[in-house]
Fold:
Amino acid sequence: MANIKSQKKRILTNAKAAERNKAVKSELRTRVKTAVKHIGADDSDDSVRLAVKRLDMAAAKGIIHPNQAARRKSRLMKHVNAGG
Structure:
């Protein structure tokens, strides 16, 4: 454990941020998985739109790299356009 007060605070804030980031990444995986599963169904447009929105939000907040978001959106759209 650190002795310096500011370092103790950094440890706490880093833990909070890591917990938040873990939740966001988990939601990303869930949204993309749901979108892929619903391809061809009636509600596929909504699930794909939500997945893309979450990817963009995560990239904007710095949770994932913008290029990673672009790559994952591109792969998702390839699945959608292929029809499954």
